[in-house]
Amino acid sequence: MRSPETAFEGGMYTIAEEQENGNIGNRFVVGPIWKTKIIEAASEMPGQLTTIDFGGRSGSAEVDLLLRDISEIPGLEEIADKVDSFRKRVVAAHVLDIDDHSLQMGQERLQRLESFHPHAQDLIKLTKLNVGNTRFDLDDNSADIALSRHFLMYPSKEELEFHLNEVHRLLKENGQYVFALLNPQYEIMKWRKHYPNHPHPEDHDPIDFPHHGTNGDSKEFMLPHHYRRLVTHMKMMQAVGLEPTSLQKAMPITDAFKEKYPRYYDERCPMAIVGTAKKER
């Protein structure tokens, strides 16, 4: 049964709606694994929790994890008890992004949710910030969990170094960074289709390829970012004191769109990788 607090937000995510919105990959491939990793990381931390989502756009992940009915979130119903415990312990969920439109959408959503969750805007805090070169106004060692989804491929080398140092600064000892990023192999596969004669990019080289929009906009646009091998990401984390602890292929949790999007089901070249890294020093 659809919960009243999410009925006006569209209720349960459906294959058809998310396919139209360009969100299939996030909702049914990456999201379930990434969100499960967040809940698992939280279970290892004691007491109240503070989270920081870098490049979190409108805060939709926080709404899912903290407010939306669990039965309506793909992949989380099986760990409902852990999600419930997570919700009781989170006292602040910071969402950082530079995009005004996304932040405005998120703020408007939180205002609507106030009818059912009176403290939604106190719990989920949206902040405009260029997370590639600007420090977040929060004390050192203040966060239990840092998050990012499809953010790590955007920054330049210098911006990524700044970001990882900022994650390390903000995390408490043994705090965890839970990240999802496009699989570099998958990036190259898409890039090759449009630039078949270009030489293979080196680490940190800028590349782009067509991408479909999200948030209700399925129009195709060019997605510019920076190519990096997975091992390069891991070494850069280790260099600042974030020790990678897990890496997992993001595979679909349903066969419902296997015919239309077969590329998501190729285990040899998964669309995305979900991982965790722990602050150890």
Sheet of most strands: 7 strands, mixed
- Integer-rounded radius of gyration: 18 Å
Helix and strand sequence: HHHEHHEHHEEHEHEEHEE
Q: Tally the helices: what do you get?
A: 10
Shape: globular
Physical arrangement of strands within the biggest beta sheet: 3-2-1-4-5-9-8
Q: pLDDT below 50 for ≥5 consecutive residues: which ranges?
A: 1-10, 214-218
Q: What is the residue-mean pLDDT, rounded to a whole number?
A: 89
Give the % helix: 25-40%
Distance, first to last CA: 46 Å
Describe this entry's structure for a reader:
Helix 3 (24-43) packs across helix 5. 37% of the residues are buried. The chain has helices at residues 4-7, 15-21, 24-43, 60-66, 80-89, 100-113, 120-123, 157-170, 184-194, 230-239, and strands at residues 49-54, 90-97, 124-128, 143-149, 171-182, 206-212, 220-226, 242-250, 272-279. Helix content is 36%, strand content 25%. Mean pLDDT is 89; it is low at 1-10 and 214-218. The protein has 281 residues and is of the alpha/beta class. The protein contains 10 helices and 9 strands.
